[in-house]
Amino acid sequence: MAFYRKYTYKSTLTPEEREARAEARFQKKFAQDEARRAKSAFNYPTAGGHYVPTERQFKATAIMLWNQTVIEDPLVFMSAQTVNLGFLTSIKVHHDHIHRVNEFIRNNPSLDL
Fold first, then answer.
1. Fewest beta carbons less than 10 Å away: which of 5, 21, 38, 84?
2. Which helix (H) or strand (E) holds 18?
3. How many helices (H) and strands (E) are present in the chain, helices listed first?
4. pLDDT tens across 91-113, in order?
5. How many domains are there within the chain?
6. Residue 62 lies inside a defined structural domain of this protein
7. Handedness of CA 51, 57, 63, 68 (dihedral sign)
8. Range of the domain at 92
9. Is the entire prediction scored with pTM above 0.90?
């Protein structure tokens, strides 16, 4: 049977040095991510695609626009208008707008849509 010693590790760094090292690691990782994104051919503004809204999403936007007290963020209000118009005219809408309406639907399960 082998004999094992228990060693305990005690850091010799001060809290300020530990924080400085952590900040340096974060800055290095951030710089690497930025360099990777710069070389990427991925088009971030068009990511996710465009879709024609469904009737369920249209009904949700009608409720959102009728009861404006539900909408606190102007961006969500604009998304509701965009999805509403997209359904009425059968025009494709960016998925971010549709996502905001879907979040409203998920957060209000009592709606009968």
1. 5
2. helix 15-39
3. 4, 2
4. 999 999 999 999 999 988 888 87
5. 1
6. yes
7. negative
8. 50-107
9. no
| Strand 50-51, strand 93-94: pairing | antiparallel
Quick one: pLDDT at residue 16? 94
10 Å CB burial of residue 83 (0-12, 13-18, 19+) is buried
Give 38-85 pLDDT, tens digit per residue: 887 777 666 778 899 999 999 999 998 888 776 788 898 999 999 999
| Residue 88 domain flag | yes
Burial 40-74 (b: 16+ CB within 10 A, else e): eeeeeeeeeeeeebeeebbbbbeebeeeeeebeee
Q: Is residue 12 part of a domain?
A: no
pLDDT digits 0-9 by tens, 8-17: 667 788 999 9
Structure tokens at 33: 């991510």
**Does 99 map to a domain?**
yes
